[in-house]
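Table S7 (text form). Paired inputs.
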Amino acid sequence: MSTVEGLQKPWIRVLLALGLAWTVSSASVALAPEPPASKSPAGFRGDGSGFYPESHPPAEWGEKKNVKWRTRVGKGYSSPVVSHGCLYVASDPPELACIDAATGVIRWKVPLKSSDLPPDLQTQARANENVRTSCGYAAPTPVADESRVFALFGTGLVACFSHDGKRQWLRQLDPAKRNYGHSSSPLLVADRLLVNVHHLTGLDPETGAIVWNCPEAGESYGTPVRMKLGETEVVVTPLGVVVRARDGVALAREIAEDLGGDEYGISPVASGDIVYLGDRNTSAVRLELRGDRVLPKKLWSVEMPNAAYASPVVGSGLYFYVGKLAEYSVLDAVTGATVLERLLQLAPAGGEDKDHGNANVYPSLYAADGRLFISNDVGQTFVLEAGRVYREIARNALPEGSGSTPAIAGSSLYIRAGEDLYCIEK
């Protein structure tokens, strides 16, 4: 089966997006990077890595075990974002909610409609709202900084709010033309709000004005990954285009082959100056910045057992990967050599599960406290030791699931399940 044939629902594979960044270099491998700065933007999988170095969430939970609170938030594949003691969650029909992280109380909830736009944009916006997709409108995850939260919806609507729920601005972009809708999440990089709808676009976060467009970085289901090469901040798109964040200049293109063409959806994973692209065909590429050019150097390329929906993580010199049928693989992050392979008893391990139906490993992997968390969209989560030897720590289940990737803050784990958001805490 080819990579494209294996991607039955590529849109959802972005609910996966950006991997865990534990520092890897060609000479040595550190256990963990420096903790992210307190002022780092919070978005998909926290700071974008999926790694929570100072957090210690529970390893076990259930419907009535270690549940601190449960709040109805509605439908959507958007992941929760933790910022300033709040959780920001996007849902369908398009709305953004702010939830108190300690109590689960909804502080504010704002619907986003075409009628909120200036008159000259309302006609286009109403037409976009009539386009139906299998993932709805609320697949992208919001991103927040010190004073604002930004949300992007599949209709092409981009919104900015203050932390107290006051709208700062709205902008209508042309929606993506993907069969399964839009799922690539926004990023805050180099004082730009980056969104990838038709192509990668840089907005002014203060006003919503378009600062630059990068047509070379075409639309995809996946979220670009941010990297820093020297003092230059760049993003790498799922299609292998390296873009300078401040001005949108494409510094390199097609840095890895066999990415699945324009239907490609899984997000890249970055660690130091190395980016990992692809799923069934995964490549590790080192990037070197020279003036206005990035020179890619392929370190290795490996054919994985199957394509993936979930984005992998990198840590402790290892590359952790789970295929769409729950095939768990661990590679040496420096050489690409296979360290461990195992079929997880996590539906749909090999096919449909009699108790859970046709489950899918849609949520991205995430890690904390030396543990790797692997979930599916029916509420199951495996907790494994993040190492070279298979060691299962716990198996957990909630009554419903989601394609959304959970978020962690301190000792709390926030999981979207069905139309509810759970706070898991001892």
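Next pair, protein 2 of 2.
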Amino acid sequence: MAHHWTEQDDMAALYVYRFGVEGTPYSINSMAERLGIGHKSFKMRLRNYRAIEGKGGLENYARQSQAIYERHCNTPAHLLCDLAFPDLKK
């Protein structure tokens, strides 16, 4: 069954694309599992952000990913982390 990507999922992928898993208690695989996404699918979403930036990656990416990127491409790490992983807020 295919995963329906939420904006929250996309923000998590954008955070990992921009900043890695630093600042989270997750690896890429455990993060994907936590979100209910296969790790290969999650890694493909990371490549979507490369394509959105014009750095290669997959040619076809979701409009939602584009919108999340445009909204948060300049959001500082600590703020994007809070948005992407609200359960980690202290």
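The chain has a mean pLDDT of 91.
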